[in-house]
C-alpha cells in the first residue's frame, strides 16, 4: 500500500473513532474518506451518461467525493481532465478510455502520486499503471450477436445463402476487437461455406482484420454513410440485404436509417440487425421492428462492481476479481471482473428493461 493510501486508511479509522466518540444520538454521518476521479468518454452516448452519473451517485451517497468529467470523445481533453484530477489529489481514478493506447504517460503521473487506477468498461493498454479492470464480457457480447444471427437464419441446419453486411466498432477502442472476434468466430465458418455471402466484400478474412471495417468513434452518421455506399455500389441490381452485424446500438441506429432510406420495410424485407447497450432509440427501433435485438449491459451492475472495488481499495483490501487471464494490455494481464451480458428482443423489452427499472416505459413509447 502506498504512503498516501496508508494515510487515507489511517485517517478514515481515526475519523471513525472520533465520530463514534461524539455520536450522542445525533444521527449517522455520511462523510467517508476518499476521493475518486471519474473520466468518461462522451455525453453523446446515453450509456456513458448513465454510467458516469450512476457511479457518482453511488459514491456520493456513501459519503465519498467524486469528480465526474466527460471528454467529448477527444483524447487530449481526457488526458488533461485526468491531469487535473491527479493534481486535485484523488485517491482513485476510474477511466473509460477514449483511446486505450494513449493514456500511459498520464497514468505514469498517477502512479507516482500513489493513485489506484481502475479501467472502466474499456481496457487501457501499454502500461503497468492500470490496477484493475471492470467490464462486461466483451467477447461474449459479440458471441451473443453471432449466435443470434446463426439461430434466426437456421445456419446450423444448412440454410442459405444469405447476404450479410458486417460492421465493427471504433478501431481505437480495445473492446471492439473482442466484440468482433466473438461474432466472427460464429459467423466466419458460414462465410467460408458460402451460407453467408458478403456482396460488398467487406468481410475480414480473420479476426485480426476487424479494424478494416471499423467505424471510428462509434458514430451513427458514419455507419449510415457506410451502408448507404455499400447499398449504392453493390445492391443496385435489386439484391437484398438479409442481415447486418452491428456491434452496438449507436451503429445500429445509423444502419436502420440507411435501410429506411433505401426502402426496406419492417415486417416485410427488413434485415436482421444486431446491437448492444439497450439505448432508448434502439429499444424504440426494436419495438418498431427496425432492430432485431440488443445485447443489454446493465450499467448499474458495472457501477456496483466498481463501487465495490473502490470500497475495498480504500479499506486496504483486495477487490474481488473473477478473471486473471483474458485482458493482457501488452505489459501485463490486468486483474478483471467480467459481468455477463444478455440478449433482449422485442418480447423481453418489458420484462428485462422496463420491469427492472433500467428504462421507463414512457422513454420508449410504451
Ligand atoms: C462499449 C459499448 C459502447 C461503445 C460505444 C464500447 O467500448 O463497451 O457499450 O456501445 O463503446 O460507446
Short description:
This protein is an alpha/beta fold. It has helices at 3-22, 46-61, 75-87, 104-112, 138-153, 174-193, 220-234, 249-261, 280-287, 299-314, 349-354, and strands spanning 35-40, 65-70, 92-95, 116-120, 132-136, 162-166, 196-197, 243-245, 272-273, 294-296, 336-339, 342-344. It folds into 2 domains: 3-130 and 298-340, Response regulator (Rossmann fold, 3-Layer(aba) Sandwich), CATH 3.40.50; 138-296, Rossmann fold (3-Layer(aba) Sandwich), CATH 3.40.50.2300.
Shape-level CATH architecture of the largest domain: 3-Layer(aba) Sandwich
* Structural category: alpha/beta
The main pleated sheet reads as: 6 strands, parallel
Radius of gyration: 22 Å
* Number of separate helices: 11
List key phrases describing it.
single chain, 366 residues, alpha/beta, Rossmann fold, 11 helices, 42% helix, binds beta-D-glucopyranose
Walk me through this protein's architecture:
By secondary structure, the chain is α/β, with parallel strands linked by helices. It folds into 2 domains: 3-130 and 298-340, Response regulator (Rossmann fold), CATH 3.40.50.2300; 138-296, 3-Layer(aba) Sandwich (Rossmann fold). The chain is 42% helix and 13% strand. It has helices at residues 3-22, 46-61, 75-87, 104-112, 138-153, 174-193, 220-234, 249-261, 280-287, 299-314, 349-354; strands at 35-40, 65-70, 92-95, 116-120, 132-136, 162-166, 196-197, 243-245, 272-273, 294-296, 336-339, 342-344. It has a 6-stranded parallel β-sheet with strand order 2-1-3-4-5-11, sandwiched between helices. Strands 7-6-8-9 form a 4-stranded parallel β-sheet, sandwiched between helices. The structure holds beta-D-glucopyranose (BGC). Beta-D-glucopyranose is lined by residues 45, 47, 121-122, 173, 175, 218, 248, 250, 276-277, 297. The site of beta-D-glucopyranose has 12 residues, from loops.
